[in-house]
Amino acid sequence: TGTSFHVFDQGRFAKEVLPKYFKHNNMASFVRQLNMYGFRKVVNIEQSGLVKPERDDTEFQHLYFLQGHEHMLEHIKRKVSIVKSEETKVRQEDLSKLLYEVQLLRTQQDNMECQMQDMKQQNEVLWREVVSLRQNHTQQQKVMNKLIQFLFSQMQSNTPSTVGLKRKL
């Protein structure tokens, strides 16, 4: 009827025709390209889309693909949806925001690592001080024990025996 085109032998079409016009010989890629330009696969009633047809015949049609109306071919254009370009813009904004936030997180992480390093160094200094203070405490305890022993011994040697002595009036 001049409103569609048929591919009667997909294997031969892919092998002989596609390489002449495309960088591939993949029928599925060709069908994907057709879909991007608005072509649709025609499913006949006898095929019903459920049972595999007996013959290898695939038919495609497009509203502006009509025999004898070559001037209409200029209306066959690749589909570009406005929604997708807006989505891409939104995605670009999201990506920019995300990259900015990642940079902020990296800066915060670097700052925290510096603080952590400082705290580790301060902790080491504090532990050294604790060890030094414990040693000083132990030394002071020894000196205190010696002083107590000395005083105790002095008190015992200076105390006269009070047994048998009377008090003076």
TrEMBL record:
Protein origin, superkingdom: Eukaryota
Coarse class of the protein's main subcellular location: nucleus
Gene Ontology molecular functions: DNA-binding transcription factor activity; sequence-specific DNA binding
SUPFAM superfamilies xrefs: Winged helix' DNA-binding domain
SMART domains linked: HSF
Subcellular location: Nucleus
GO cellular component term, pick one: nucleus
Keyword terms of this UniProt record: DNA-binding, Nucleus, Stress response, Transcription, Transcription regulation
Pfam families per UniProt: HSF_DNA-bind
Residue ranges of every copy of the HSF-type DNA-binding domain listed in the record: 18-42
PROSITE patterns: HSF_DOMAIN
Family: Belongs to the HSF family.
Protein name listed in UniProt: Heat shock factor protein 4
The organism of origin for this protein: Lates japonicus (Japanese lates)
